[in-house]
Design goal:
26% of the residues lie in helices and 20% in strands. It has a 6-stranded mixed beta sheet, with helices on one face. A 4-stranded mixed beta sheet has the order 3-2-1-12. The chain is an alpha/beta fold. The protein is globular and about 50 Å long.
């Protein structure tokens, strides 16, 4: 157990590389938020085991661990089991308070089966999605592993009814060339002043047309959330 300071560290998509984060937690942050894509899915069958070791190492230091999921995080049964094991630390679709900051999480990516274009929902509920999913593809009679890492329209709407200071996403808002404008609207409706995202492996600072600040966090990069 370390003596904690008040820092909140954000870790860009690890893709199996946890060493930069391990170096950073030596300065005893209050919390770590991981932006998804912990490993490379089917390309890295042992990745879930290393992610488990990394999560436990963070927790063993007494650090508050939080994460959202990325598009590579449910390709294998072992990855889904990992998400179930650490479900209490996952903030997708939630608003949590850390050091007085209200932090909202929205993991996953946009996929065409659930969305048309930039933010038009094609499916209205999880029950509808399950009904559309062949039984052979369902995980424990629920959604498929693939769509565990798809942004759900109902998750977006549940967040929209809440307020936060920071929105943590895997997908990018519109200031990134591959971003989505509906995230701009979500951020505005929630009253956040900052959006932080991963996925594109690029570190940058930007702003939306509505004035909300944006920070992209690069591949296996550590960034400190402003106090």
């Amino acid at each position: 157990m370390m003596n904690m300071n008040s820092e909140i560290l954000v870790y860009g998509d690890p893709h199996g590389n946890w060493e930069p984060l391990f170096s950073a937690i030596e300065r005893a942050p209050k919390a770590v938020i991981v932006l998804g894509d912990f490993s490379d899915g089917k390309l890295d069958p042992a990745g879930a085991g290393r992610t488990r070791e990394a999560f436990n190492r963070i927790l063993d230091f007494g650090i508050d661990l939080r994460f959202i999921i990325g598009n590579h995080d449910a390709s294998l049964d072992s990855q889904v089991e990992l998400l179930e094991e650490f479900a209490d630390h996952r903030i997708d679709g939630k608003v949590v308070e850390i050091e007085g900051k209200r932090i909202a999480g929205l993991g996953g990516i946009i996929r065409g089966k659930l969305w048309r274009g930039d933010g038009e929902a094609l499916v209205s509920s999880e029950a509808e999605l399950i009904a559309m999913t062949p039984r052979v593809e369902r995980w424990k009679d629920g959604v498929s592993k693939k769509h565990m890492t798809t942004i759900k329209p109902w998750t977006v709407e549940a967040l929209r009814s809440q307020k936060a200071d920071v929105l943590i996403t895997h997908e990018a808002p519109s200031c990134h060339q591959h971003g989505f404008e509906f995230l701009d609207h979500l951020a505005s409706d929630m009253g956040v002043s900052l959006v932080v995202h991963g996925h594109h492996h690029k570190s940058y600072s930007g702003a939306l047309d509505n004035g909300i600040q944006v920070r992209g966090v690069g591949l296996a990069r550590v960034w400190t959330l402003p106090t």
